Amino acid sequence: MALGAFLAGLLLAETEFSLQVESDIAPYRGLLLGLFFMTVGMSIDPKLLLSNFPVVIGTLGLLIVGKTLLVVIMGKLFGISIISAIRAGLLLAPGGEFAFVAFGEAVNQGIMSPQLSSLLFLVVGISMAITPWLAAGGQLIASRFELHDVRSLLPVESETDDLQDHIIICGFGRVGQIIAQLLSERLIPFVALDVSSDRVTVGRSMDLPVYFGDAGSREVLHKIGAERACAAVVALDAPGANYRCVWALSKYYPNVKTFVRAHDVVHGLNLEKAGATAVVPETLEPSLQLAAAVLAQAKLPTSEIANTINEFRTRHLSELTELCETSGSSLGYGFSRTTSKTKPQASDASDDNQIMEGGTLAI
């Protein structure tokens, strides 16, 4: 049953209902978590700890050191800094709750003796109990050896109190930096968020209001004055992070218009359903620019290149519009409705109808 619940949770986490489900079960999670630790405490036998103290401490040390080294090695293989890898290793070093399920099933199947199971229960329980100290140790290591202190990059409400009708840039990568530069040149107030301390440091060196923080966190958004913002540009790297950020903005700050880039059509439709005001396909315009450069190298006239690119763009957008209308999307993939400039306005009474019927799709 425990494994089935775990698998069910994994399946739900991949659906568009994941954030709402997480919000609904939060109260029960706290109650069940307390019940779980009560059962763990009841399974620990102090007499067994005293009688097998050297064995328990030795096994506990092997578990902590072994898992930490394993995570550090894996972290380095995936390009994570040594400090971050050590911190992750110390956080993941304790045993997990499924160890109790696995050990209990092993005893039932006759694979493990009850005495050994009780001893391992004790080791895993102690390892979980010392998790706060392991986390503190990782933080101590980071504070001594990390070059950038992330805490100094966090947003502070006093620094954003005077902002009104500003733009929120979620993600300070290549797209976010370009948007920030354009807004800065036009003296349009904005605040940028990113979870990379290196990117935040780059933005600070350019004297831009860039802060370290999770753009999908309600608390972080509140600290940068999201309730007073007029729009948000979501340009995070991961599709899941984009969806989570759009969902948080639409749920907690519905007055903020969200403009987000999408990796593909399916992702774009999901973002629109999450509450995005406009969704922009990230591959369309770069592909057209590359195609124009190739056509120019093929010695085609400039006018013919322009016509070819415009025809393809129009056809592509038309196909996307039909797809969105078929799927029931209210805005359209990559675009928001704007007032038509082609239809004449016969009278004031028919103005609203003409806007909707003749609404154009614009990037």
TrEMBL record:
<dbReference type="Pfam" id="PF02254">
    <property type="entry name" value="TrkA_N"/>
</dbReference>
<feature type="transmembrane region" description="Helical">
    <location>
        <begin position="116"/>
        <end position="135"/>
    </location>
</feature>
<dbReference type="InterPro" id="IPR003148">
    <property type="entry name" value="RCK_N"/>
</dbReference>
<protein>
    <recommendedName>
        <fullName>RCK N-terminal domain-containing protein</fullName>
    </recommendedName>
</protein>
<keyword id="KW-0472">Membrane</keyword>
<dbReference type="InterPro" id="IPR038770">
    <property type="entry name" value="Na+/solute_symporter_sf"/>
</dbReference>
<keyword id="KW-0050">Antiport</keyword>
<feature type="domain" description="RCK N-terminal">
    <location>
        <begin position="164"/>
        <end position="281"/>
    </location>
</feature>
<dbReference type="GO" id="GO:0006813">
    <property type="term" value="P:potassium ion transport"/>
</dbReference>
<feature type="transmembrane region" description="Helical">
    <location>
        <begin position="53"/>
        <end position="74"/>
    </location>
</feature>
<dbReference type="GO" id="GO:1902600">
    <property type="term" value="P:proton transmembrane transport"/>
</dbReference>
<feature type="compositionally biased region" description="Polar residues">
    <location>
        <begin position="335"/>
        <end position="348"/>
    </location>
</feature>
<dbReference type="Pfam" id="PF00999">
    <property type="entry name" value="Na_H_Exchanger"/>
</dbReference>
<feature type="region of interest" description="Disordered">
    <location>
        <begin position="335"/>
        <end position="363"/>
    </location>
</feature>
<dbReference type="InterPro" id="IPR006153">
    <property type="entry name" value="Cation/H_exchanger_TM"/>
</dbReference>
<feature type="transmembrane region" description="Helical">
    <location>
        <begin position="28"/>
        <end position="46"/>
    </location>
</feature>
<feature type="transmembrane region" description="Helical">
    <location>
        <begin position="80"/>
        <end position="104"/>
    </location>
</feature>
<keyword id="KW-0813">Transport</keyword>
<keyword id="KW-0633">Potassium transport</keyword>
<keyword id="KW-0406">Ion transport</keyword>
<dbReference type="GO" id="GO:0016020">
    <property type="term" value="C:membrane"/>
</dbReference>
<dbReference type="GO" id="GO:0015297">
    <property type="term" value="F:antiporter activity"/>
</dbReference>
<dbReference type="InterPro" id="IPR036291">
    <property type="entry name" value="NAD(P)-bd_dom_sf"/>
</dbReference>
<keyword id="KW-0812">Transmembrane</keyword>
<keyword id="KW-0630">Potassium</keyword>
<keyword id="KW-1133">Transmembrane helix</keyword>
